[in-house]
Fold each of these.
Amino acid sequence: MRSFRSLTREDYAEVKSRLSMEKVAEFYGYQVKRGGVCLCPFHNDIHPSMKIYPDDRGFYCWVCGKGGDVIRFTALLFGLTDREACRKLAEDFSIPVTHEGETYRERRERQKRQERHEQLQKFRKEAEKILSGYRILLCEAARDPSSAHFVEALQELSVVEYRLECLRENPAEYYADRKAVRKLGEIQKRTAGWNK
Ligand SMILES: [Zn+2]
């Protein structure tokens, strides 16, 4: 049996980076329905009132007001402290934590994984902002035939919708596609002087 005496902040980050809220909720028996809602385990819920946010953005119940990350969810569900909940998640999902006896190479790999995760989160947020902003501008232009961007709007609107969908479904794949990333930069530049 592994010793968990020295759970570090890195361990918490590791557990959180490996587990989406949806994965954890479903693992413990709460089916996440369309629109990312599920029955709230923390009050007598009949209609799903708990929102499960994508990736590591946690949960929130708009009826009883409980919310937090995967660790908080598990702590509340099983009546554990956050530390115990983190251990439980690590065990249930076979995530190696506590880095006693970890080799140099294992540590480097873990840190790299963590860095990649953070990079990807940052990219996803920025890309979503650029694409959503562009979509709004295109929607406005498409309604106005006298707009200088009218033709562009007709041509590009469905493309942008598609890109947003790809981004939400698989941000890692999107990030790896250098052409798609370059295109984001172009959009950002072009829309900077829009409507002027
Ligand atoms: Zn609730």
Amino acid sequence: MLKDCFTLRITRDLSPNNMELIIAVIILLILAVLLFVIYRSNNRLDITKYAVADKNIPKPFDGFLIAQISDFHNTRSKAVRDKIISALLESKPDIIVVTGDFIDYYRTDTEISLEFLRRVIPVAPVYYVPGNHEARIEKYPQFCASAERLGAKMLDDRLVSIVRGDSKIDIVGVRDPYFYKECEPVPERRIDILSEKLKSLLQAGESYIVLLSHRPELAELYADSGVDLALCGHAHGGQFRLPFVGGVFSPSQGLLPKYTCGLYETNGKRMIVSRGIGNSSFPFRINNSPEFVFIRLENIENADSSEH
Ligand SMILES: [Fe+2]
């Protein structure tokens, strides 16, 4: 009799309807935990510090600190914006470079970017090259004028020299090839235009050359042009990062892209790729928090580069 009651209760408790409810609750719990983890990691800020040592870096620039903000995409995350400002105030870089996509084409909010720039400008001189998103935003010229009024130095295919004593380094900025789509609809030809502009900018250069360019997939072109150190973004770290695999996807490089983050060497020249700050058409990252990069230049004979 007792056994019959027990069997009846179990049967009632685990009826098909109850089982479905339990499975639904478990799935909802897993989804809630996943969403929480994704939210947390997308509002965290990883700070990566590199030391780039080269005998061609002039002695007065030993210790010169560059802060790199890439792919900001007018991020809605106030937490991330505040963390960048805190890191800047703490580190006191010599210059700040913006390597494209400071505003987002799909969810454009220029006011977020300009307000952030207002907070960044007092820290150090800001050098800015536009990315493919700026190239597609109609009101970029107005945004550009506002950024210049705030004090940003726009490096639209321009070179500036930073002088210390009798020495200098050159900061070169090239616009994203998307800017040339009006004058040249063939994608390969746009890269040729970028290459020609870069070579003409570097013609007179004998200094240590730091290039600001949005796209990392042109690493060989940069190295062959004589760039000593290229600072890039664009790949967003591959959006999702898998253990032992790395980034999953990048615009322009497709699946399992080669250049997503870190320091690369091509023909003895270096390139640093930031995972960037924000998102665009795909609104979140997995295992790939926003990244803020610092690069310290060092004048050391025959030394290697390293990540700290
Ligand atoms: Fe981007």
